[in-house]
Amino acid sequence: MYAFTFEAPSSTAAAAQLIAQGGKLLAGGQSLLPSMRLRLANPEKIVDLNGIAELAGIRREGNALVIGAMTRHMDVAASSEVKSAIPALADLAAHIGDRQVRARGTLGGSVANNDPAACYPSAVLGLGATVITNRREIQADDFFVGMYTTALEEGEIITAIRFPIPKRAAYMKFKQAASRFSLVGVFVAQTDSGVRVAVTGAASSVFRHAGLEAALNQSFTPQSAASVKIDASDLNADIHASAAYRANLISVQTQRAVQQMLE
Known about the structure:
- By secondary structure, the protein is α+β, with helices and mostly antiparallel strands.
- It is built from 12 helices and 14 strands.
- Among the domains are: 1-51, 2-Layer Sandwich (Uridine Diphospho-n-acetylenolpyruvylglucosamine Reductase, domain 2), CATH 3.30.43; 168-262, CO dehydrogenase flavoprotein, C-terminal domain (Enolase-like, domain 1).
- The strands form 4 sheets. It has a 5-stranded antiparallel beta sheet with strand order 4-5-10-6-7.
């Protein structure tokens, strides 16, 4: 690693001031620290969010769960509140990476990083969540812009995410065995405004699948999902899977999610 200064503010306001001075945010460190070790990132100042108590925690607000940005994956997975209100979200968190990753990784860090194969972005998009920052609130449909790119502006910090509680939901993940990231992950939710289907791992960024949503709004069955042709032309192809294979996985994982929700 290259030399850097380390700052540990105790409030979001103080962290924002340090970012304005050129600091790089450190949440769980599951992406930043490996990048630094490989010398792919060279921040001159690191701003550690781990000491800011106001950024962690889980609470119920009406028909929504508000989860602090610095809440660890393991805490989301173990939360009785999450298990009761949105069990699919608890299950998703319980299968991110390995135990060490879940003990350090955070909700806000994952969503801000927007790795193309990360699990949390599919839940945020699939549930139609709202990303709350130190400046504003951003709807999920407007948040994820592209590969490792979001609507966050320079110096903007995610403070929490508000998840509307769905009628029911399920997440099905076909993982890449070595990294445990999603080769393809599909989050299906029945909400008050209809069915939402969010796909991760298959393209350059998480996305909603309009065809699957339309079919499942007509008939919420695995057969209805199976009838939708998945276009592979814009999907990823790499050493792990072809675009056609990922297209098939989108269909299969959606069918499995729907079946689970009906059981």
